[in-house]
């Protein structure tokens, strides 16, 4: 199988490296710049761990590292079986729109790994013929350098055909392309499942992200420290109550124990730097607009007041200093 993986940040390096390490498939890893692509070709990818597991080194010749500028040309010459999008939401909504637009009339299989929501609808409009799949993952990765990544937490990944509910449902055993990809992900060490409920998983994760991400980014604390004071937990609870009021108003289901889930994620990822805090610390734009911003949009559409989400969006938006 040939796989195009676009985005060589933390999850892109981790997935690209581990898929390439099996030696079974042709992996093309598309990087933002030529410099990173050259470095990956010369030195390969190193995946390390926070415990005493030995790090894994994937030599540069096990995969093809390339700059995204050449993507469409290469794809049209030799199309891949899957395109996996590992870029952040802001890059997806800007640079990737330009990059993928020439595929408007093509039917690629695309898997999207973003936090937040709104991106699948955007891609469906951009690429109406594509077979779009969404992924929700609890794998955690931290970038160490442009070619080194730390696998900070082993999780699970759910993959599902987008908009199952609105078009004719395809049973999971009738999706051979997705089953083949899942086999690859599982043999590379990512516990992955094909799901008919990926849309509700996206919103379940959105709820968790909308509480943990902005607060950890503002207070600059690891996820677990959110639970260490009652004033922190009170603000978490306010964000939670507003978000579920919006979910109720627009008809999005959530678990009866959704609040306990938020607490459990903070405990399970206690030492982790959230992706939003990592963005703030690196001076990158955050994904606030596609996380709490989408809760705001839904609230505005349904006439629900969400003062805490509105305030937090403005605070985090003001922290963004895009360095590119
Ligand atoms: O965005 C993240 O960092 C993660 O989705 C989560 C669940 C908040 C854990 O760090």
Highlighted features:
324 residues, alpha/beta, Rossmann fold, N-(1-d-carboxylethyl)-l-norvaline Dehydrogenase, domain 2, 2 domains, 8-stranded mixed β-sheet, 4-stranded mixed β-sheet, 13 helices, 12 strands, 44% helix, globular, binds pantoate
CATH superfamily of the largest domain: NAD(P)-binding Rossmann-like Domain
Strand content: 15-25%
Q: Characterize the largest beta sheet: strand count, sense, and whether it forms a barrel.
A: 8 strands, mixed
Count of beta strands: 12
What is the CATH topology of the largest domain? Answer: Rossmann fold
Can you walk through the features of this model?
The structure is a single chain. This protein has 324 residues and is of the alpha/beta class. The chain has two domains: 2-196, Rossmann fold, CATH 3.40.50; 200-317, N-(1-d-carboxylethyl)-l-norvaline Dehydrogenase, domain 2. 44% of the residues lie in helices and 19% in strands. It contains 13 helices and twelve strands. Strands 5-2-1-6-7-8-11-12 form an eight-stranded mixed β-sheet, sandwiched between helices. A four-stranded mixed β-sheet has the order 4-3-10-9, covered by helices on one side. Strand 1 (2-6), helix 1 and strand 2 form a beta-alpha-beta unit. Helix 8 (198-219) crosses helix 10, helix 8 packs across helix 11 and helix 12 (292-302) runs antiparallel to helix 13. It is globular. The model has no long low-confidence stretch (mean pLDDT 95). The protein binds pantoate. The site of pantoate (PAF) has 11 residues, from helix 8.
């Amino acid at each position: 199988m040939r796989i195009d993986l676009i985005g060589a940040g933390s999850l892109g390096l981790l997935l690209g490296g581990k898929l390439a390490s099996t030696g079974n498939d042709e992996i093309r890893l598309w990087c933002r710049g030529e410099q990173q692509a050259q470095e990956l070709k010369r030195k390969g990818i190193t995946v390390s761990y926070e415990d005493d597991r030995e790090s894994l080194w994937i030599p540069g010749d096990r995969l093809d590292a390339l700059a995204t500028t050449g993507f469409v040309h290469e794809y049209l010459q030799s199309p891949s079986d899957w395109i996996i999008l590992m870029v952040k939401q802001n890059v997806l909504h800007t640079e990737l729109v330009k990059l993928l637009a020439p595929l408007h009339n093509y039917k690629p299989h695309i898997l999207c790994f973003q936090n937040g929501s709104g991106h699948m609808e955007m891609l469906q409009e951009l690429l109406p013929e594509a077979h779009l799949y969404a992924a929700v993952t609890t794998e955690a990765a931290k970038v160490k350098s442009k070619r080194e990544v730390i696998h900070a937490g082993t999780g699970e990944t759910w993959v599902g055909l987008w908009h199952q509910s609105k078009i004719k449902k395809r049973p999971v055993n009738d999706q051979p392309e997705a089953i083949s990809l899942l086999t690859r992900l599982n043999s590379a060490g990512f516990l992955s499942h094909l799901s008919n409920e990926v849309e509700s998983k996206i919103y379940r994760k959105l709820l968790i992200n909308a509480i943990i991400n902005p607060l950890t980014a503002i207070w600059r604390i690891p996820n677990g420290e959110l639970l260490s004071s009652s004033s922190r937990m009170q603000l978490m609870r306010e964000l939670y109550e507003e978000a579920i009021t919006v979910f109720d108003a627009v008809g999005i289901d959530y678990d009866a124990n959704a609040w306990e889930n938020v607490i459990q994620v903070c405990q399970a990822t206690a030492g982790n730097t959230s992706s939003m805090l990592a963005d703030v610390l690196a001076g990158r734009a955050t994904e606030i607009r596609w996380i709490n911003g989408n809760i705001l949009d839904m609230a505005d559409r349904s006439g629900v007041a969400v003062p805490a989400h509105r305030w937090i969006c403005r605070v985090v938006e003001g922290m963004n200093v895009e360095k590119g």
